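Course exercise 7: structure representation. Students receive a sequence record and must write out the corresponding structure in token form. The form below is the worked example handed out in class, using Glutathione S-transferase 1 (222 residues). Read each field label carefully; the graders check that inputs and outputs are placed in the correct fields and that the protein name is recorded exactly as given.

STUDENT ID: A-19
EXERCISE PROTEIN: Glutathione S-transferase 1
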Amino acid sequence: MGIDIYAIKPSPPCRAAFLVAKAIGLDYNLKIVSLEKGENRTPEFLKMNPAHTVPVMTDGELSVCDSKAIITYMMNQYAPANLQSMYPRDPAARALVDQRLYFDSQLFSTLRGIVFPLLYLKDLKQSQANMPRLEENMALLETFLTRSTYLAGEHLTIADLATLANVSSMEACGIDMSRWPHVQAWLAKLKAELPYYEQANGEGAQMLGAIYQRILKDLGGK
Ligand SMILES: N[C@@H](CCC(=O)N[C@@H](CS)C(=O)NCC(=O)O)C(=O)O
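STUDENT ANSWER:
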């Protein structure tokens, strides 16, 4: 029994789930799903998630798909009292964290628009056409981080952890982060502060970055 997370390490939304579980000391069984072998399209998997995406989390009879639903469930159900500030119960404070989480979904979608065409379609032109949208979102993230040390105020929340999974992936893919100095400083701070960073996120970000950079080079991009 216990929590199972169906996932792959290179995926940013999967790493958001790993980061939040580690942050609150929640044990889970990692069930690797091979997308190459179509394990996310079997009848059993589609029953859990008709959208055939990872991560999916199961907790007994309950199955939850979409990383944001998973991480908020983990917090609501399992966060110890001293860590509940990572997803505050107060509606006003929670609204800010939720806003940043919805923003992060948009950030992931722009990152996916760059990574997916390169990895799966080997289409450099389509990948690079999506770069201005990512830059627009990163400028917005930079604005958020000029206003507070963490994404939703002066302490760590799950919005930081979700966004960390995406931003560290961009860095690993070789996207020049020096254009957004507050984001760069926030990234360095989180890497240094989170003892579980490497295991939950760093390793997977490097895996994604290595594949991306290899294909980018093969296609003559930079
Ligand atoms: N909104 C979803 C996105 C998940 C997602 O797109 N996962 C990708 C891997 S990064 C996936 O499973 N792709 C396989 C597919 O679409 O069939 C979440 O946050 O969980």
